[in-house]
Amino acid sequence: MPIPANLHLEIQAHRSQHYGVIRSSFRANGKVIHTNHGRISGLPLDKLKLIQAAFRGDVVAKSSANAFRVLSSREYGASQAFLQLAKDLGLPQILYSRHEPWIAPALAMIVGRIVYAGSKLALSQQGPNTVLWELCGVEGRVDVDKHCYEVMDRLLERQAAIQRALAQKHLQNGHLVLYDITSSYLEGEYEGSQLVDFGYNRDGKRGHEQIVVALLCNEQGCPVGVEVLAGNTKDDKTVAAKVEQIQKEYGISQLIFVGDRGMITQTSRRQLEGVQGLRTISALTHRQTVELLERKVITRELFDEKSIAEVIDPDDPRRRYCLCRNPETARRETQTRKSLLEATRQQLEKSACSKRKAKAEKIGARVGRVLQRFKMGKFVDWSVQEGKLRWSFKEEAIAAEERFDGCYVIVSDVPAEQMAKTEVVASYKKLSFVEQAFRNLKTVQLEMRPIYHKKDERIRCHVFICLLAYYLQWHARQRLKPLFAEDGEGKHRQWTFEHVIERLKGVRSERVTAEGVEIEIHTQADDQQQRILSLITGKRS
Q1: Which run of H or of E encompasses 132?
Q2: How far apart are CA 252 and CA 18, in angstroms?
Q3: pLDDT in tens, 460-516
Q4: How far apart are alpha carbons 453 and 149 in whole angstroms?
Q5: Which of 157, 191, 207 is the last residue of a domain?
Q6: Which residues are 24's β-sheet partners?
Q7: Which domain holds residue 21?
Q8: 3-class SS of residue 40
Q9: DSSP assignment, residue 220?
Q10: Mean pLDDT value across residues 28-45
Q11: pLDDT of 120-143, one tens digit each?
């Protein structure tokens, strides 16, 4: 139901009985289109006329200042817009082909994740502030167990089928499939959990247990699947199973799998050998790149900021190496190394200038802690002489490393006749879409963390709800591109996705009383709000 822009009361009669019809009207293709929003009956004609005047805004209270009052005001615009978007995308049918009671509250949790984020308990208590639950058909008090937790259990049962439907809708045979994983830390006790564990934390949160989240997107960045893995899962251990899932469960027999550096290791390559219809694009780790330099397959001089050099692996002619250099990355890496070297110098000088002599073992342990902390050990020569630390930087090694800053190697087995080297590099860079998805899921708007659930199944479903919310958000962003394209720069920049939602929240559902009669109306969207609504829903309000 579109948000009415020109709400009015039309008085009609049937068998000498008058009643009022709350309507909004607009002209389309030369015709006047009416939409009915409610009916007022059981009142005398003079009362109906007073209410009709109130809708026009020209009513004057006859008896007291309280003749026309606003009793409550709740958010309507954002919830209605994203529910309408979900319907436009066919999300209710994707959740389940038949209408079942759990689907509506599931949609409320998905849309609520975009508009309100927070815990399920907090969302269940938003009744006084929003009509979201009522728009989803949940009348009266929302019970967090019935309308959230029980629904989550049902939704999780449907995850595999839902992701198959999303893959069939958004993945195409022979096209790119983008894949990456991230981690999300948790707090508290998780005894008996098969998911929560210590592992490599990509957020730099040491000392916290975590889960690993694997995300699958199409080549435009539209999400189609998510999986929650144990917190100690390594990147390359997930690749073979994910390719098998794409081909067998999603029915994509021919694909170009794009994964971040470290995904396609020697181990995962062996697991993928012989898989029909599979091509891969990834990037080499620093160590793998150094190995190529040592084998003299590539040289430092081939890395150029303006052009891409392509080299074929002599030991495996199917493997193409595309050599690139990013000057911005180079400056950042050089500056980072200088900062770490300076921090290392200060700590080593502190030890070297100590007036007290110490045993070699004690000094060595102290130096080891410094080098471990700043990861600069390969650039330091040190020794202990007569109870004193003697050290120096390896200037040649530092200079050689600096010449390598900003350099990276894209590796692929896609034939040159199918994809040129520039396309290979551009395809790898599309992983930025997945990185953007992770930023939105973890820290922006959707706030996947903190995770309040303690059961593995609920953790899995919580992440899945966040994915479905991002699915709606991604499509909303596509539809809002004209708005963002017209935005200013610097201090003149106005639009963010968060600002869009705040503007939509300004469209309210108001419960008012006129001469003792209670009615519910919606505030009229201004021109700015109207444009946002039209872009997201594809309909005029």
Answers
A1: helix 132-135
A2: 62
A3: 999 999 999 999 999 999 999 999 999 888 888 999 999 999 999 999 998 888 666
A4: 10
A5: 157
A6: 35
A7: 1-73+510-517
A8: strand
A9: T
A10: 78
A11: 999 999 999 999 999 999 988 999
Helix 456-479 to helix 150-157 angle (10° resolution) is 80
Residue 6 lies in a domain: yes
Per-residue confidence (pLDDT) for residue 86, from 0 to 100: 97
Nearest to 431 by CA among 299, 199, 261: 261
Tracing tokens 């907090």 back to the chain, one arrives at 122
Give the residue among 415, 407, 461 at the shortest CA–CA distance from 148. Answer: 461
Sheet with 17-28, strands from edge to edge, namely: 8-14, 17-28, 31-40
3-state helix, strand, coil in the chain (%, to 5): 45, 20, 35
- What is the pLDDT confidence band of residue 14, given thresholds at 50, 70 and 90? confident
Q: Is residue 248 part of a domain?
A: no
Q: Are residues 89 and 61 in the same domain?
A: no
Q: Which residues contact 503 (CB under 8 A, 6 or more apart)?
A: 528, 529, 532
Instruction: Report the alpha-carbon distance of residue 359 to residue 486 in Å, rounded.
Output: 68
Q: Considering 358, 388, 403, which residue would you say is the last residue of a domain?
A: 403
Choose among 509, 537, 503: nearest CA to 523: 509
Same-domain check for residues 5 and 23: yes
How many domains is the chain partitioned into structurally?
A: 3
Same domain (yes/no): 82, 25: no
**Which residue type does 280 have?**
T
Q: What sign does the dihedral 27-32-35-38 (CA atoms) show? A: positive
Same domain? For 40 and 64 the reply is yes
Distance CA 161, CA 141 (A): 31
| Dist. CA 95–CA 116, nearest whole Å | 21
Helix (H, G, I), strand (E, B) or coil at 422: helix
Closest CA to 282 of 231, 331, 243: 243
Q: Are residues 90 and 67 in the same domain?
A: no
The residues, ordered by sequence, that sit 6+ positions from 538 with a Cβ below 8 Å of its Cβ are: 88, 479
Per DSSP, the three-state class of 270 is: helix
Whether 230 is in a domain gets the answer no
Asked whether residue 332 falls in the same domain as residue 394, the answer is yes
Q: Is 349 part of a structural domain of the chain?
A: yes
CA distance linking residue 408 with residue 399, whole number of Å: 18
541, pLDDT greater than 50: no
Quote the tokens at residue 294: 């040592």
